[in-house]
């Protein structure tokens, strides 16, 4: 299930006409991303609350919206009316399955917000649906599109075989609402970003994990808000993640604090500024290959890669087969914590 699918190419001279599904907080963010994109045109907005969708379009875009945007409560209703070419799914996780299935059934490629789906079984269902439809389904892991993360990946490649990559994540957000009641708030809601970014930097896949979750006595979360996970990655590298969502003071970046130890030296990244590296051979950084840059930052980067994939057939980052491995890391870590044992990623995927 982890082999990239063969998806239909959508070559065309004009902009890609997209329907945005979900007009909440992330919907507003994506409206601005779509409006600023060169090769994309917002054709429609779908939300269960049609009045909200109309208000958001008016408030966020106003006269900048250009051609009229079709608004409705159903993708099956809106997509034909606006001659849509693709769907951007920014609904809540529980709606990822039905919305993406509907889009694929309509013959429309999908760029969805993380997570791929609300659970591994649903995720596997969507991967199979994308295969059957022959359409691209890509997940927007927007933190992959950070120029400093790309720089760290560059150092990792230059430093040779990596022994260990560590991430420290310590924040104390008081969200209120559903996160406070979740059983696994840190691992399930946040760590997908950290795990996926580690895969990107290491250019490696997960093999197995041992994880412990716990909840400090002062935590305001009902579920486990802290954890330590040790992943074995392909090539024998270890990725060690330690985090807490109830850690007041000296907080890290949302991107974590990183240290990479390799055969040819080490690299550090604070999650915000440019990473630093020390090479064992003493050669300066400027003597090494130029650091590549993402096509754009954040959601704009994911959108640019989605459009390029549909135009050229090049498999993008976040393609659903690949992203399934990042989601599997989350559920394998939870399973390991529950059983107090090492869990193989293949076993978790095999149960889908």
UniProtKB/TrEMBL annotation:
Domain (GFO/IDH/MocA-like oxidoreductase): give its ranges. Answer: 183-255
**Which keywords label this protein?**
Oxidoreductase
Example GO molecular function: oxidoreductase activity
Q: Which positions fall inside the Gfo/Idh/MocA-like oxidoreductase N-terminal domain?
A: 16-139
SUPFAM superfamilies named among the record's database cross-references = Glyceraldehyde-3-phosphate dehydrogenase-like, C-terminal domain, NAD(P)-binding Rossmann-fold domains
Q: Does the keyword Oxidoreductase apply?
A: yes
Q: Which domain of life is it from?
A: Bacteria
Q: Which InterPro entries match?
A: Gfo/Idh/MocA-like_OxRdtase_N, Gfo/Idh/MocA_oxidoreduct, GFO_IDH_MocA-like_dom, NAD(P)-bd_dom_sf
Q: One Pfam annotation, family name?
A: GFO_IDH_MocA_C3
Q: Which family, according to the similarity comment?
A: Belongs to the Gfo/Idh/MocA family.
PANTHER family assigned: CONSERVED EXPRESSED OXIDOREDUCTASE (EUROFUNG), CONSERVED EXPRESSED OXIDOREDUCTASE (EUROFUNG)-RELATED
| UniProt protein name | Putative dehydrogenase
């Amino acid at each position: 299930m982890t082999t990239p699918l063969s998806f239909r190419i959508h070559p065309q001279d004009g902009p890609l006409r997209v329907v945005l599904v979900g007009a909440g907080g992330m919907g507003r963010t994506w409206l601005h991303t779509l409006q600023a994109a060169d090769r994309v045109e917002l054709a429609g907005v779908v939300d269960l609350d049609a009045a909200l969708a109309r208000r958001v379009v008016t408030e966020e875009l106003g006269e900048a919206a250009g051609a009229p945007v079709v608004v409705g409560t159903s993708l099956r209703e809106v997509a034909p009316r606006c001659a849509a070419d693709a769907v951007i799914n920014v609904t809540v996780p529980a709606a990822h399955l039905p919305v993406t299935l509907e889009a694929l059934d309509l013959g429309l490629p999908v760029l969805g917000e993380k997570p791929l789906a609300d659970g591994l079984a649903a995720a596997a269902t969507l991967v199979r649906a994308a295969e059957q439809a022959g359409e691209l389904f890509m997940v927007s892991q927007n933190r992959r599109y950070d120029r400093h993360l790309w720089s760290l990946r560059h150092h990792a490649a230059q430093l040779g075989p990596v022994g260990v990559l560590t991430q420290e994540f310590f924040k104390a957000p008081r969200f209120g609402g559903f996160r406070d009641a979740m059983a696994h708030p840190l691992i399930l809601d946040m760590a997908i970003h950290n795990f996926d970014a580690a895969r990107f930097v290491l250019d490696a896949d997960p093999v197995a994990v041992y994880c412990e979750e716990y909840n400090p006595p002062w935590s305001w979360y009902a579920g486990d808000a802290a954890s330590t996970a040790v992943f074995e990655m392909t090539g024998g590298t270890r990725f060690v993640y330690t985090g807490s969502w109830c850690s007041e003071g000296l907080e890290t970046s949302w991107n974590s604090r990183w240290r990479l130890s390799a055969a040819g030296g080490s690299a550090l990244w604070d999650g915000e500024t440019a990473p630093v590296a020390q090479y064992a051979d003493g050669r300066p950084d400027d003597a090494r290959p130029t650091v590549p840059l993402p096509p754009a930052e954040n959601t704009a980067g994911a959108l640019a890669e989605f459009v390029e994939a549909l135009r050229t057939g090049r498999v993008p980052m976040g393609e659903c087969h690949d992203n399934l491995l990042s989601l599997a890391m989350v559920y394998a870590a939870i399973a390991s914590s529950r059983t107090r044992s090492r869990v193989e990623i293949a076993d978790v995927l095999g149960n889908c």
